Amino acid sequence: MKILYSHRIQSRDGMSVHLESMVAALRAEGHEVRVVGPAAYAEASLGGESRLTALLRRWLPGAAAELAELAYSIPAYLRLARAAAGFRPDAIYERYNLFFLSGALLARRRQVPFLVEVNAPLAEERSRFGGLTLQRLARWTERFVWRTASHVLPVTEVLAGHVRNAGVPAARIVVVPNGIEIAEFPTPAPAPAPAKPVVTLGFVGFVRDWHGLDTVVREIAGFRGATPLELLVVGEGPARPGLELLAAELGIADRVRFTGLAERQAVPSLVAGFDIALQPAAVAYASPLKVFEYMAAGRAIVAPDQPNIREVLEHERTALLFEGGKPGAMWAAVKRLATDPVLRARLGAAARAEVLARDLTWSGNARRAVALAEAEIARRAKAAPEAAR
């Protein structure tokens, strides 16, 4: 197939990993993909964002900034339409963004299948956390894009509920979670040996205060097990300075390490060094990319017991899940794993097997998306002669 991939990403982060992994998987499956997005994306550094976008958000009043976002759909549409004119896509695939109408408008005009990947209910999210001013307009644009889509692809069943509530028929909603490139994790890391001198707790991602890693640092300092614990954080974020200061105050600065921003190709080997992989907290509707990395690496995972996490992990079989918000619950799971290398190995092996059994891979996601587009093309081809009668 010829697939036109539309996006509005301007930063290099988890969003870009999803985008680039999906495009690479589609191409590996033999499809031709043309990617159309902001010029700033090609120039962005790892962890950075567009300077222009940052300035607009800082200096423009809320309503003006949001109208500027909406207005961006005009040049984006023209750029997308020019690409489509020469490329003649069989389908348009778009990563949903608020106030971004380009793909929906072009799909309507060209009458091609339109697949919309949804990673968050952005109108609700920004209303709650980002001070969204034009809420009615934002929700209208969101509903317009979702309802225009041939299929909406939310990353969790929890998120699918938001899409259904926006009026999208259930038949047009297909949950497609995040995935992993399994070739980057060709074999599980060796099971930790009982005699290992230190047990490594690991975390991958952008470090924020709400992740609760300060609790992990405090508990490491107070741990009195036979084998000492350390924390390895693969990533960067605003919580890092406070965590480093806390570790120094507690006398364990040598056991709390940060790699800083890590290139994508370095992540598998870093995760392989974890004995226990931490997902201390998760947004209720998210499909955390780190969970799939932990699973593919065959690591023992500790994660909150909530519906979106249970869509991919099962307590006592592929992870230890703890009651979120309950004091000491996460650490009880960590302590159990820290003293039981056999359990760590069993959970890690089962998590890796789950990825393979359910094809929780980017290649699997690419095949699912293409199958939906092909079915929509076939449906339209069948309906055309009937409509002409």
Automatic annotation (TrEMBL):
Alphabetized Gene3D superfamilies for the sequence: Glycogen Phosphorylase B
One GO molecular-function entry: glycosyltransferase activity
Annotated ranges, domain Glycosyltransferase subfamily 4-like N-terminal: 14-179
InterPro entries assigned: Glyco_trans_4-like_N (IPR028098), Glycosyltransferase_grp1 (IPR050194)
Name assigned to this protein: Glycosyltransferase family 4 protein
